[in-house]
């Protein structure tokens, strides 16, 4: 996956609306479309995409710590929001867009710095106006559960220009 380095690298709204969410995610994973710059900054990227499911992998660095030296909850939240919302995106039809309305994170245990984790987002409901998904963060090597999450996204049909 390649990441956008400047605004011009991102897909235009018109181009994004010309494909389904699944097609968009597949093309991004294949490197045909630039990934979001936040993935480069926070060291995570999509590794698997299918209808209703997206997997990201990431590794927390010291830069992502809170004042107590543990991984900041915002890093957990960002990975979960990305995986869960992108899973919903895979159910969004051509001509529509979506955004997160709310998400919740439950941190089970602290992720050790430098340990690669996998964040799995799975759709529970992909409808015309809403999408609901759940997620979990697990250690790649140890398989332990580090956090869970849930999200509700709004799906919006965009009318073509008159």
UniProtKB/TrEMBL annotation:
Protein known as: Hotdog fold thioesterase
Has the keyword Nuclease been applied to this entry?
A: no
Family statement: Belongs to the thioesterase PaaI family.
Tell me which InterPro entries the record gives. Answer: ACOT13 (IPR039298), HotDog_dom_sf (IPR029069), PAAI_dom (IPR003736), Thioestr_dom (IPR006683)
Thioesterase domain segment(s): 68-143
**Gene3D superfamilies (alphabetical):** Hotdog Thioesterase (3.10.129.10)
Going by the UniProt record, its keywords in alphabetical order are: Hydrolase
Query: Which Gene Ontology terms cover its molecular function?
Result: fatty acyl-CoA hydrolase activity
Q: PANTHER family annotated for this entry?
A: ACYL-COENZYME A THIOESTERASE 13, THIOESTERASE SUPERFAMILY MEMBER-RELATED
Pfam families (alphabetical): 4HBT
* Coiled-coil portions: none
């Amino acid at each position: 996956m390649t990441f956008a380095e400047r605004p011009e690298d991102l897909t235009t709204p018109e181009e994004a609306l010309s494909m389904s969410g699944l097609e968009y995610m597949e093309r991004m994973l294949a490197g045909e479309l630039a990934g979001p710059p936040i993935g480069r900054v926070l060291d995570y990227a999509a590794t698997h995409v299918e209808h209703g499911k997206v997997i990201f992998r990431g590794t927390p660095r010291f830069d992502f710590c809170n004042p107590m030296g543990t991984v900041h909850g915002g890093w957990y939240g960002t990975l979960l929001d990305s995986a869960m919302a992108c899973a919903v995106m895979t159910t969004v039809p051509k001509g529509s867009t979506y955004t997160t309305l709310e998400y919740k994170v439950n941190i089970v245990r602290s992720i050790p710095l430098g340990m690669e984790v996998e964040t799995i987002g799975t759709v529970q409901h992909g409808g015309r106006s809403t999408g609901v998904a759940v997620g979990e963060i697990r250690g790649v090597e140890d398989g332990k559960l580090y956090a869970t999450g849930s999200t509700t996204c709004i799906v919006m049909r965009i009318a073509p220009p008159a």
